[in-house]
């Protein structure tokens, strides 16, 4: 019904439902539910259920079943159980109808072979089997017979059940124990509606805030391939909700992906401080000294790719949007399963009391290294920033700074060929590491990284070290000149 603008209220207005602008419908309209699906909600459980009843009364069982199944796409709903029962009743009616038709019009049994020929074929088949046992088998026939399993009567019972699969959309930041709690609760709720069915719930990570936390009937089997967890519950035979995490690589790769993202973000933040804005292309971070903010763009751990996209498409690698407001939104994984990774800059913590160095990003610990310090407390305390990243740094004397150095101004973290000085106070103020250790750190310390030098011991709580960090390094590294000709005057 099209209602034009009017000045006075009509008594029929109370019986109309407003659809859009001047379009109204009446619940008494014979096509009311069809119009609800067409104009208001194509997935309306009530509308599909009512239309299914209409087709069932008309005897159009195929169309009725179609609409009842559409009701099952939305869970929970007040019409879910009724639609489920209606489908079972219609299936039973169709089966009974087929059986009655078969009785009414029995097909004449066609005998392909006379009984005598059937008997002969069976005898020949048995004789052939005996010959195989006698001449081909490894053991004599009496031993083979003695090994045959005797099945106890009634000792094994097989229950046939119908699996009803669902999907639950999960927030990527949800902890495993919270996922288990949500799946357990949802399985119990679903079992109340389907006590004789086997409930399957696939947990899928979703970036869509609208879907997160929702449980829906599974209509696309392809979705199960991205599930990270599955819950199974069959109350008729087992009162336990069995939950199993499917993606064993998730916990391994999530920390690596976070470290890779924050490694680049740390370099981007430093670049913004130096130049006032982010670079248009990430290649600006991979330049010769002194603009070697990074040694490489790390591989995204889940996809083993460091390809760069300007928009998220889920194809792996990274997304870089130089116009974003902050570095967290500027650079992130191009993979849905990773979820949101907060910006936690890579930084170095130095403990003078224990002669140790930590490379940390948020709650993730990359490495702990033994170090050497300055004699007579000459290594200063405070917060510093990596200003120079140098391979084979030159000093007043040859090889005085080892194979690599991270300059902090007057002092540096650098390698040494005198490994006996590690763990002692022998330098002139710099922090010494073995050459293998400084080379390992060098690749994961961007220009601009904060270095905190403290005298006190660390707290007793230590983060567990992330494993397989070297998986972030691509096979082919950029060709950079990180060995300038200038002479450095670090304290040494």
In short:
With 492 residues, this protein is α/β, with parallel strands linked by helices. The chain has helices at residues 32-40, 45-58, 61-71, 80-104, 115-135, 141-146, 176-193, 250-275, 327-330, 435-443, and strands spanning 17-20, 23-25, 163-170, 198-205, 215-217, 227-233, 242-245, 308-309, 318-320, 331-333, 346-351, 356-361, 364-370, 373-374, 382-385, 388-391, 404-407, 412-416, 425-427, 431-434, 450-454. It has ten helices and 21 strands.
Plain-language structure description:
This protein has 492 residues and is α/β, with parallel strands linked by helices. It folds into 4 domains: 31-99, Alpha Horseshoe (Serine Threonine Protein Phosphatase 5, Tetratricopeptide repeat); 163-245, no CATH class; 250-284 and 301-338, no CATH class; 346-472, L,D-transpeptidase catalytic domain-like (Beta Barrel). The chain has helices at residues 32-40, 45-58, 61-71, 80-104, 115-135, 141-146, 176-193, 250-275, 327-330, 435-443; strands spanning 17-20, 23-25, 163-170, 198-205, 215-217, 227-233, 242-245, 308-309, 318-320, 331-333, 346-351, 356-361, 364-370, 373-374, 382-385, 388-391, 404-407, 412-416, 425-427, 431-434, 450-454. The strands form 6 sheets. Strands 5-3-4-6-7 form a 5-stranded mixed beta sheet, with helices on one face. It has a 5-stranded mixed beta sheet with strand order 13-12-11-21-15. The protein has a 4-stranded mixed beta sheet with strand order 16-17-18-20. The radius of gyration is 36 Å and the shape is elongated.
């Amino acid at each position: 019904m099209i209602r034009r603008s009017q000045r006075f209220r009509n008594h029929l207005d109370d019986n109309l439902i407003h659809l859009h602008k001047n379009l109204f419908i009446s619940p008494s309209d014979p096509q009311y539910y069809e119009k609800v699906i067409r104009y208001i909600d194509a997935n309306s459980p009530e509308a599909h259920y009512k239309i299914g009843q209409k087709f069932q009364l008309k005897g159009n069982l195929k169309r009725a079943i179609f609409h009842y199944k559409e009701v099952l796409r939305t869970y929970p709903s007040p019409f879910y159980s009724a639609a489920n029962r209606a489908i079972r009743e219609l299936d039973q009616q169709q089966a009974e109808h087929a059986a009655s038709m078969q009785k009414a019009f029995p097909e004449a049994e066609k005998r392909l072979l006379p009984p005598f020929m059937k008997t002969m074929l069976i005898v020949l088949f048995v004789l052939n089997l005996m010959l195989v046992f006698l001449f081909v088998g490894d053991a004599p026939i009496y031993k083979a017979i003695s090994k045959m399993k005797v099945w106890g009567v009634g000792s094994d019972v097989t229950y046939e059940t119908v699996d009803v699969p669902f999907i639950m959309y999960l927030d990527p930041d949800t902890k495993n124990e919270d996922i288990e709690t949500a799946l357990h609760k949802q399985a119990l709720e679903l079992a109340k509606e389907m006590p004789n069915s086997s409930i399957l719930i696939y947990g899928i990570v979703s970036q869509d805030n609208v879907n997160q936390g929702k449980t829906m009937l599974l209509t696309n089997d392809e979705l199960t391939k991205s599930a990270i967890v599955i819950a199974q519950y069959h109350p008729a035979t087992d009162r336990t909700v069995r939950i199993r995490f499917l993606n064993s690589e998730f916990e391994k790769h999530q920390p690596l992906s976070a470290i890779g993202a924050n490694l680049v973000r740390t370099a981007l933040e430093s670049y913004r401080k130096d130049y006032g804005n982010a670079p248009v292309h990430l290649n600006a971070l991979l330049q010769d000294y002194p603009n070697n903010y990074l040694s490489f763009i790390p591989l995204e751990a889940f996809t083993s790719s460091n390809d760069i996209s300007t928009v998220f498409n889920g194809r792996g690698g990274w997304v870089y949007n130089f116009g974003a407001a902050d570095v967290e939104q500027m650079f992130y994984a191009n993979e849905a399963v990773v979820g949101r990774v907060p910006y936690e800059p890579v930084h170095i913590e130095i403990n003078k009391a224990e002669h140790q160095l930590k490379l940390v990003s948020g709650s993730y610990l990359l490495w702990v290294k033994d170090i050497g310090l300055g004699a007579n407390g000459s290594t200063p305390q405070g917060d510093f920033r990596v200003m120079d990243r140098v391979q084979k740094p030159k000093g007043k004397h040859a090889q005085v700074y080892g194979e690599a150095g991270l300059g902090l101004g007057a002092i540096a973290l650098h390698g040494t060929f005198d490994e006996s000085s590690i763990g002692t106070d022998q330098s002139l103020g710099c922090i010494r590491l073995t050459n293998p250790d400084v080379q390992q750190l060098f690749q994961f310390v961007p220009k601009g990284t904060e270095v905190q030098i403290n005298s006190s011991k660390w707290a007793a709580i230590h983060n567990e070290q992330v494993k397989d960090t070297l998986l972030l390094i691509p096979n082919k590294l950029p060709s950079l000149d990180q060995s300038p000709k200038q002479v450095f005057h670090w304290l040494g």
